[in-house]
Automatic annotation (TrEMBL):
Electron transport keyword on record: no
Transmembrane domains' residue ranges: none
This protein's name: TetR/AcrR family transcriptional regulator
Region (Disordered): 207-235
HTH tetR-type domain boundaries: 12-72
Record's compositionally biased regions (Basic and acidic residues): 211-220
Upper classification of the organism: Bacteria, Bacillati, Actinomycetota, Actinomycetes, Kitasatosporales
Pfam families: TetR_C_24, TetR_N
UniProt KW Transport keyword: no
SUPFAM superfamilies per the UniProt record, alphabetical: Homeodomain-like (SSF46689), Tetracyclin repressor-like, C-terminal domain (SSF48498)
Source species, domain of life: Bacteria
Record GO terms (molecular function): DNA-binding transcription factor activity; transcription cis-regulatory region binding
DNA-binding region of this protein: 35-54
Species, as recorded: Streptomyces sp. R35
Length: 235
């Protein structure tokens, strides 16, 4: 939801805090079971003041989704545009996705479980964000398929395998557990790329090239919520 005219940065800080609190409540209690009054008590606002920040309870589901998808889509577009092997870009995108999953588990849980509560334009917005991310993943996989790096398979099926492996992580991962985003991405992509590989095809050393990117380009972090400092998007 865009900031109303005349509101300064404090308004946006407060609004984002409300969104994060709502994600926590919805993940713990369920969207349907959490009332606006419950949320108002959690953030210390009366119902009227709360609606001033959120518009509606239904709109909160879009805001929770966007808290993840807006930075993730921005970073995914930048990674997809890098001048690098498509498999390396896929590995970087994987780590970026897992980074925000680990940080925003409540948000992921809510929109995976409660998006069916949305209707009309709200649902259209959510599905559009998801579809764009899927197109970016499919584009990288299609590039690799076009180079005969992978065995013949429908790009859509390859995309679903990538998404299924990553998107279910929220169900079991712990932010302070034994595996971080880089470790999970290394294992996931190792499994996927070896499984997708065409017989006899030479695959790049994806881990070596991903490590080199992170070492040599600290100005281009994989974290979706960190800003890229360089205006030049190159490998």
């Amino acid at each position: 939801m865009p900031r109303p005219p005349g509101h300064g940065p404090d308004y946006e800080v407060r609004r984002q805090k409300i969104i994060d609190t709502a994600a926590e409540l919805f993940a713990r209690q369920g969207y349907a079971a959490t009332s606006v009054n419950d949320l108002g008590r959690a953030v210390g606002l009366a119902k009227g003041a709360l609606y001033y920040y959120i518009g509606s309870k239904e709109n909160l589901l879009i805001e929770i989704q966007s808290r993840v998808m807006t930075p993730l889509l921005s970073r995914a577009r930048e990674i997809a545009a890098l001048d690098a092997d498509p498999l390396v870009r896929l590995r970087l995108l994987s780590e970026s996705l897992l980074t925000i999953i680990l940080r925003r588990l409540d948000h992921i849980w809510v929109y995976e479980h409660d998006y069916r509560s949305l209707t009309g334009d709200y649902l259209h917005t959510l599905l559009g964000q998801r579809a764009e991310f899927e197109r970016l993943v499919r584009g990288l996989l299609t590039e690799a398929l076009g180079q005969s790096r992978f065995r013949a398979m429908p790009p859509r099926l390859a995309t679903l395998q990538f998404l299924n492996l990553h998107n279910h992580t929220y169900q079991w991962v712990k932010p302070d557990g034994r595996w971080d985003a880089a470790q999970l991405s290394r294992e996931y992509c190792g499994t996927l790329l070896r499984g997708f590989g065409a017989p006899g095809a030479a695959l790049p050393d994806v881990e070596e090239e991903a490590d080199a990117f992170k070492r040599d380009r600290p100005d281009l972090p994989l974290d979706p919520e960190a800003e890229w400092q360089s205006a030049e998007v190159t490998g």
